[in-house]
Amino acid sequence: xxxxAETMRCPCGCAEETAKQRGTxxxxxxxxxxxxxxxCCGRYLDDGEATSxxxxxxxxxxxxxxxxxxxxxxxxxxxxxxxxxxxxASKSRNKWLGLEVRRHEQLEPDNALVEFVARYKVxxxxxxLHEISRFMREAGKWFYIDGEIL
Length: 150
Description:
Blueprint: H1 42-45, H2 54-67, H3 70-75, E1 95-108, E2 111-122, E3 125-138, E4 141-149
Antiparallel strand pairs: 1-2, 2-3, 3-4
């Protein structure tokens, strides 16, 4: 994909936190939809900065899927469940359309859940991926473990 990362809006939607805060029924939205990729997920994908929350890791992984960054996806996948390859280069590219984080729940200091809906198109047909993903933090770094598709 030929992109100008300096001017591109970040695919994740550029929200620091959008999940409903448990027990409040409302969203804590700190969003700037015009935020550029280098100031949002680019700092994780390109600069190697560690994400501070499981939600931030989930958003950066969505961006990595949108940009075809298999290196980042595998690098943020926990070694106990990580596949050897995703073979993204050999598959037809999905067109990622949007991300909604519905819930971010910190179960323990180093374990969290993130529920999200990702919208995308394959060969012109629209699809939705609704998933609850599990994350684990080891040595200060968050990793994706697995997910339950709803």
